[in-house]
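Next comes this protein.

***
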Amino acid sequence: MFNQCFHTSINGVPACANQQLLTNITRNEWGFKGYIVSDAGAVSNIISYHKYVKTPEEAAAASIKAGCNLELHLDDIIYDSTLSAMKAGLLTEKQIRDNVRPLMYTRMRLGEFDPEEMNPYNAVNMSYVQSVAHRELALQAAMKTFVLLKNDRDLLPLKQVYNKLAVSIM
């Protein structure tokens, strides 16, 4: 249903502004049809951390053109600059409409625009969602996941603190 772009960059292009990653590979090569959401603050980092662009309008335009459909923000809401980016000629109305389309399709599939009584998800309560079976499934998913670390501050290797590191593959 959704995919996420993150804080790092690939070949010098921030992930949330990377058309090669978000559109060419994720959508075109892999056939992903859902929406892509940024990691929290990743779009604003295009300006502040990566220094890839200088203004919120440029960051919004770069992310939208790359294929990031939704910004998960912290403090700065870069996507609030979308209209001014369009007025500045950085985006077209068609690009904005195309960017919103996967979000609206997802909301329609979830029944958000249907009358409440027609939406089957309204009948699902938290006792079901947070059941023991679902919590065990979430734990299993977490145990079968791994994270690649970027060694920005030379924290790795951990030999100063640990002599050995175990990696478990379930």
About this structure: DSSP finds seven helices and four strands in the chain. The radius of gyration is 20 Å.
